[in-house]
Amino acid sequence: MSQVLNIHAENPQLRLVRQAVEIIKAGGVMIYPTDSAYALGCRIGNKAALQKISQIRQFDSRHNFTLVCRDLSEIALYAKVDNSAYRLLKAYTPGAYTFILRATSEVPRLLMHPKRKTIGIRIPNHPVVDALLSELDEPILSSTLIMPGEENPPHEIDDIKGDLGHAVDLIIDSGFCGLEATTVVDLVEGSPRLLRAGKADTAPFQN
């Protein structure tokens, strides 16, 4: 069974955050809160953890994984950001958006879309995520927790514990955090293209 840490949503306890980061660094897969819904996360370079997330979500090889980053400077290490994309990222992060961009050579090939060589980028607005990223000192490989056959993420943490307690190494319980996935916007071709309507406002990206 997974370890459960009850971390305060607004004032994360540093001791527990550090405990969570140690599990991640050791190769663990976690379920953690974001500003849109609970998500699955692990360390970037851990192939076994990545495969575990893929099995839980039942992804195919064309899935775009997401890197949860601290700020725009960290994004620039992993994604190619031109001036127009930078302005959009600056305007709409942090927030419940995932932006699709071309990946740099810093991104392991396993994480990229195999044909487009793209990666999802996200800066959530959530104190627990901020604390985790600060202690980990690198992005979190992440995917919204949407189970196969479902359209929306689960929102009851007790249901998440019951259904996935055997499948992950860590569950961070911060109470209710939302029940919508992120809004996904493709910035690869220059002009924004809305791929998925989610929690964040879609109006700025409507064609």
Automatic annotation (TrEMBL):
PROSITE patterns referenced in this protein's UniProt entry, alphabetically: YRDC
Any one GO molecular function term: double-stranded RNA binding
Domain of life: Bacteria
Domain YrdC-like: 14-200
Regions that span the bilayer: none
Entries under InterPro entries matching the protein: DHBP_synth_RibB-like_a/b_dom (IPR017945), Sua5-like_dom (IPR006070), SUA5_domain (IPR052532)
Designated name of the protein: Threonylcarbamoyl-AMP synthase
